[in-house]
Amino acid sequence: LQSDAQNAFDGAADADALEAARVTFLGAKNGQFKDVQKMLGGIEPADKRAAGMRLNDVKQAIHTAFETAQSQLGGGGSSQIEPGFDPSLPGRRPRLGHIHPITQTIDHLTEIMGRMGFEVAEGPEVEDPFHNFVALNIPEDHPARDPLDNFYLATAGTAVDIGEGDALLRSQTSTVQIRVMQERQNSAPGQPIRIISLGRVYRPDAPDATHFPMFHQMEGLFVDEHVTMANLKTVLRVFANNYLGDDVEIRFRPSFFPFTEPSVEVDFLWNGTWIEFGGAGMVDPNVFEAVGYDPEKVSGFAFGLGVERLCMRRHGITDIRDLYSGDLRFLQQF
Ligand code: PHE
């Protein structure tokens, strides 16, 4: 049996023939080795031990012969190359992650505003009422401070006081205006300020196609002597033309914000429709006073635009929730 098996394995021309020979000799059901093994039952008890040992040696030898033949057929035999695999095909490119469309938008806006001399400032997302409200001329009883319209932080039902009152997730990036003006009072007194701040803001809105409880704003602040509304209009128009194209028109609608006077809402006409992108205005004297600037000496403008809305207009995105669904089929398009 051993030499029959050896000859069959050696003579196998390809992997299929070798496999057929393996089944003939080693097959678990009808292999020839199995037949011999069955004969062990009829052997005299006295000889059983020796016969069993001999049988094991033969089995081992047949296995070795099979393995040798298999490795001689090359590459360890057919079992290592999957059926249907064509090794001559080019490899598959591994898919790398890439930058989220909102981050791409932030980079793009930063670049456009940078060309107009605006540098990036940052502020924390967890804020105190002074920076989110008080310094922005939003008094205690103002509806904008309503707990139903803000994410106040609480631990086990108790408000978190961070030294300056109850902490909240900032509802607007205008907080950064305050932080920058406070900081520049010390680091660069009397110097003009020209900053943008891009970051997350939070409002408890139910998500729909145009609302999400977290979104991004681009805040702008320009403080100097003799800054005018005309400067504000120009900066926003140049920005809009750069980001959305030359066919964009800009419209200012009279509005009200506690921290600007006069205040406007900013609409862009694009592809025939007016769309509101945010608010703007001339920095209110009360705000200057809250951070120690003399409103008789300096003036300034501020604006806050919705980053998602800009990104959606530019790319034709119709549902803000797509940006935060994490769906790769959507994200891979950017
Ligand atoms: N903070 C305002 C908002 O979130 C936008 C704004 C910014 C308005 C700066 C005027 C000046 O709606």
Automatic annotation (TrEMBL):
Any single GO CC term annotated in Swiss-Prot or TrEMBL for this entry: cytoplasm
Binding positions (Mg(2+)): E261
Keywords: Aminoacyl-tRNA synthetase, ATP-binding, Cytoplasm, Ligase, Magnesium, Metal-binding, Nucleotide-binding, Protein biosynthesis
Subcellular locations according to the entry: Cytoplasm
Pfam families linked to this entry: Phe_tRNA-synt_N, tRNA-synt_2d
Residues of the Aminoacyl-transfer RNA synthetases class-II family profile domain: 115-310
Gene Ontology molecular function: any one: tRNA binding
EC number, as in UniProt: 6.1.1.20
Domain of life: Bacteria
Cofactor note: Binds 2 magnesium ions per tetramer.
Principal location class: cytoplasm
A GO BP entry: phenylalanyl-tRNA aminoacylation
Catalytic activity of the protein: tRNA(Phe) + L-phenylalanine + ATP = L-phenylalanyl-tRNA(Phe) + AMP + diphosphate + H(+)
Cofactor (UniProt): Mg(2+)
HAMAP family associated with the record: Phe_tRNA_synth_alpha1
Description of how the protein assembles with itself and partners: Tetramer of two alpha and two beta subunits.
Family: Belongs to the class-II aminoacyl-tRNA synthetase family. Phe-tRNA synthetase alpha subunit type 1 subfamily.
Name recorded for this polypeptide: Phenylalanine--tRNA ligase alpha subunit
Organism of this sequence: Neorhodopirellula pilleata
Gene assigned in the entry: pheS
